[in-house]
């Protein structure tokens, strides 16, 4: 495989829909699939709204946005859209769901197709073993918001071939992102392992009564130069995503240090998941995430 021209993104949530648009803006033919037609409709509406804002701000031209949407299909059925060079999975962070999906994609897609997961919770081997093509499997971990964040972690599994890694890195570079290659798999990869250590310490400080959410975020911004504090970032990316990541790690290791904190468990149980629900560690007037 020498290059990626056609892409299927499975899962039309915030991450999947933005990954699909990034690829379409870079000139790829893209299908965005979700079994829920309402989720697909919302994804299209939100992407068009974002691009309209970009046009108003002079960051995109109407021509390039129109061409991108002409290359982007919204598909509720998989069969017509599986003849692609690359599949990127962006569904719920549950390994059984992902494994079932990849087993299905393995049967449907041509031999040339590379299968990739956007997950940082599960390493390639945890999902590739559900397929007959572990040599054509890797993780492509985008960061939220995918339209803005440049880093994409490209993670090699034990059986991932050099050709697959070259195709994956080439795709990341083509769409204008910065590939960060991991030659061995490890849960959380690079950025999130470092970030999770900061988040865990921030929550320990909060639960210990040492400082407020606002004070901890302010210290990280003004003393450490972070663009946003750890609690602001958890609200942006989704508290449930962090919860599922930690829970999956705890299920694997049994180490209490890997378990979600009491505070995060309480917020998830209450449905306070951050910006997307209007309330998390902070309260928001709406659930729109900016892309500046």
TrEMBL record:
Q: PANTHER family attached here?
A: 3-HYDROXYACYL-COA DEHYDROGENASE FAMILY PROTEIN (PTHR48075), 3-HYDROXYBUTYRYL-COA DEHYDROGENASE (PTHR48075:SF5)
EC class, as a word, reads: oxidoreductase
What are the residue boundaries of the 3-hydroxyacyl-CoA dehydrogenase NAD binding domain, all occurrences included?
7-184
Name all 3-hydroxyacyl-CoA dehydrogenase C-terminal domain ranges.
188-284
Question: Which GO molecular-function terms appear in the entry?
Answer: (3S)-3-hydroxyacyl-CoA dehydrogenase (NAD+) activity
Record organism: Nocardioides ginsengisoli
Q: What is this protein called?
A: 3-hydroxyacyl-CoA dehydrogenase family protein
Q: Which family does it belong to?
A: Belongs to the 3-hydroxyacyl-CoA dehydrogenase family.
Under InterPro entries, the record lists: 3-OHacyl-CoA_DH, 3-OHacyl-CoA_DH_NAD-bd, 3HC_DH_C, 6-PGluconate_DH-like_C_sf, 6PGD_dom2, NAD(P)-bd_dom_sf
Record key words, sorted: Oxidoreductase
| Listed pathway(s) | Lipid metabolism; butanoate metabolism
EC number(s): the record gives 1.1.1.35
């Amino acid at each position: 495989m020498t290059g990626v021209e056609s892409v299927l993104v499975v899962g039309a949530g915030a991450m999947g829909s933005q990954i699909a648009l990034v690829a379409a803006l870079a000139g790829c033919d893209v299908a965005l699939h979700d079994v829920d037609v309402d989720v697909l409709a919302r994804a299209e509406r939100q992407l068009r709204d974002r691009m309209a804002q970009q046009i108003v701000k002079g960051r995109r031209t109407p021509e390039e946005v129109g061409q991108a949407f002409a290359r982007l299909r919204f598909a509720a059925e998989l069969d017509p859209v599986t003849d692609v060079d690359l599949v990127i999975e962006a569904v719920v962070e549950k390994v059984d769901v992902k494994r079932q999906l990849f087993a299905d994609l393995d049967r449907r897609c041509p031999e040339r197709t590379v299968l990739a997961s956007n997950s940082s919770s599960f390493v390639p081997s945890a999902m590739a073993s559900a397929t007959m093509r572990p040599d054509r499997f890797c993780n492509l971990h985008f960061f939220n918001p995918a339209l803005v964040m440049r880093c994409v972690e490209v993670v090699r599994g034990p059986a991932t071939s050099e050709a697959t890694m070259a195709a994956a890195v080439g795709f990341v570079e083509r769409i204008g992102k910065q590939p960060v290659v991991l030659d061995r798999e490890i849960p959380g990869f690079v950025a999130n392992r470092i970030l999770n250590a900061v988040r865990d310490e921030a929550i320990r400080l909060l639960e210990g009564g040492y400082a407020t959410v606002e004070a901890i975020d302010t210290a990280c911004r003004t003393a450490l130069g972070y663009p946003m504090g750890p609690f602001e970032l958890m609200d942006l990316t989704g508290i449930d995503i962090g919860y599922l990541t930690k829970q999956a790690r705890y299920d694997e290791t049994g180490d209490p240090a890997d378990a979600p904190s009491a505070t995060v468990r309480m917020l998830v149980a209450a449905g306070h998941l951050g910006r997307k629900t209007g309330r998390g560690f902070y309260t928001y007037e709406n659930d729109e995430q900016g892309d500046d």
